[in-house]
Write a structure and sequence with these properties.
Layout lengths: L1 H28 L1 H4 L3 E3 L5 E4 L36 H17 L23 E2 L1 H15 L3 H10 L1 E2 L10 E3 H15 L1
Antiparallel strand pairs: 1-2, 3-5, 4-5
Length: about 190
C-alpha cells in the first residue's frame, strides 16, 4: 500500500506539479520563446517561427538552406552522409548548378556552402551573411529593387554571435523576407 501511495505522490509531484511549475516560469520569464518564437506580420497573423526554416521558391525572395525533410519539425533530422557519399555529392552538385543558373557570372566556388548543404536538423532558419549577399543580384533582378537597397537590408538583418562569442553571424531568412515583402509592396 505504501508503494501505491508513493507512486501517486511521485506522479502528482513530478508528472504534474513539476511540469506545471516549469511551464509557469517559462510563460512568466520567456513568453515569446515558450510559445514557439512565433513571428507575426503587420496584420498580426502568424507566418512562422524564428526557429524553423521555410521553403521560399519565389525568385523575389531570399532562399534558405536545403532541407532533406522539407522543414517538417515533426521529422527533424537529416541524413548523416559523409562528404564522400555519392548521393551527397550529387545533391550538392545539383544544388550548386541550380544556384549558378540563377546567378550567371558566378563560379561554383563562389556558391556559399550553406546554400547547397542542409543543417543537422534540417530546420535551420538562418543562412550566413555571405549566402544572403550572394543572392542579392538575383533578388534585385526579380524585384526591381536596387542591389544597394538589398545589401542594406541584409546588413540590417545580420544577427551577431550569441553572447558575443557563440556561433557565427547569421541572417534569419523569414525575417529578412518579411521586410523585403514590405519593400516590394511599397515599390508597387
Amino acid at each position: 500500500m505504501k508503494c501505491i501511495r508513493l507512486a501517486i505522490v511521485m506522479i502528482l509531484l513530478f508528472g504534474l506539479g513539476y511540469p506545471a511549475f516549469m511551464t509557469g516560469i517559462a510563460q512568466t520569464l520567456f513568453p515569446h520563446q515558450a510559445n514557439g518564437s512565433i513571428v507575426y506580420n503587420d496584420e498580426n497573423k502568424a507566418v512562422g517561427s524564428e526557429l524553423i526554416g521555410q521553403s521560399f521558391q519565389d525568385p523575389r525572395y531570399f532562399h534558405g538552406r536545403i532541407s532533406s525533410i522539407n522543414f517538417d519539425a515533426a521529422a527533424s533530422g537529416s541524413p548523416n552522409y559523409a562528404p564522400s557519399n555519392e548521393e551527397m555529392i550529387q545533391r550538392t552538385e545539383k544544388a550548386a548548378e541550380e544556384w549558378l543558373k540563377k546567378n550567371p557570372g558566378k563560379t561554383k566556388e563562389e556558391v556559399p556552402l550553406d546554400l547547397i548543404t542542409n543543417s543537422g536538423s534540417g530546420l535551420d532558419p538562418h543562412i550566413s551573411p555571405a549566402a544572403a549577399f550572394f543572392q542579392v543580384p538575383s533578388v534585385a533582378k526579380a524585384t526591381g529593387l536596387s542591389e544597394e537597397q538589398l545589401n542594406n537590408l541584409v546588413k540590417k538583418h545580420i544577427e551577431g554571435r550569441m553572447l558575443g562569442i557563440f556561433g557565427e553571424p547569421r541572417v534569419n531568412v523569414l525575417k529578412l523576407n518579411m521586410e523585403l515583402q514590405k519593400m516590394i509592396q511599397n515599390k508597387s
